[in-house]
Fold:
Amino acid sequence: MSSSPSRRILVTGGSGFIGSHVCDALVAAGHQVRCMDNLATSRRENISHLEGGKTFTFEEADIRSVDQCIAAVNGVEVVVHLAALGSVPRSIQDPLATHATNLTGFLNMLEAARSAGVRRFVYASSSSVYGDSKELPKQESYIGRPLSPYAVTKVTNELYAGVYSRLHGMDTLGLRFFNVFGERQDPEGPYAAAIPKFIRAFLRNEAPRIHGDGLQSRDFTYVGNVSRVIEQAIAVEDARCSGEVFNVAYGARTTLLELVHVLREEMARMDEAIGRVEPVHVAERAGDVRDSLADISKARELLGYEPMIDLRTGLRKALPWYLEHWR
Ligand SMILES: NC(=O)c1ccc[n+]([C@@H]2O[C@H](COP(=O)([O-])OP(=O)(O)OC[C@H]3O[C@@H](n4cnc5c(N)ncnc54)[C@H](O)[C@@H]3O)[C@@H](O)[C@H]2O)c1
Structure:
């Protein structure tokens, strides 16, 4: 149980992968949690264990609707805004849908929160804002040009949140997540992320498909680190945080080939045949960044963030869920 006071918190995208972990953590910490989601890319099962609890409610609602946003923020003190359409390829395929949810929906939520007098608005940004910047590690103040419509939406979210902080004195805190993974991340569909897709391939003794040479790198971040920093962003009382953005990552760089190697080692402990499965290489994907590694010193210093769970430990935590649901 956290020592921070109990608050009324709205989590948008709360039945999604990250959102459901955030709801778990906030309910466990004694907060009153309202989860809002239109179930576009998530399953109600992700939060069914919370439903019926005294401190948790689920509203099926859409952030593209102004009225539904206004209803959702009624009576809340803090908004954790995670609802969005993820995936760079999806945004290239269907930029209008990504724009409608990630930008218009974002502004609907921000404006609804402002008119309801919500003081704290914590929202999901993304490492994609670093775009074509070659600098490593990525520091918050140096972003490149966006490489996808998805990245444009996240950059613009940050611009709007900064303006609401300066104009209206709202405490907006943006968290630039770097490749989050863990239990409940969906391996299905064309827009699934790399780790769940690789896990599912190995579970079927199929070769995981790597786009390009596999030497592209990512800062893979276990979801438990993310829900912890969201709690810290809700609780922090430091005026320097208002209107700011923070990298949220583990702070280590892993190539996709290294990821496949670690994952295969871990999964071969359960089924030694998996140890013999080799990845195949397919065409590179448009819009992907080449290398990604976060400097997390700003979140450390201002939010007290300390990522506790590294890639291998995170995979060990996540694998039983995949075995249960996807074997
Ligand atoms: N997973 C990552 O690696 C990662 C990295 C960077 C940023 N992010 C951001 O973190 C947030 C959560 O992502 P996630 O990985 O949990 O993905 P997710 O798809 O599991 O969660 C997003 C949730 O938003 C909901 N949603 C979509 N459109 C909606 C709408 N119009 N109205 C209401 N709800 C809607 C979906 O149903 C889903 O539950 C997103 O903003 C995403 O852009 C994620």
In short: The mean pLDDT is 96. The CA atoms of residues 3 and 54 lie 19 Å apart.
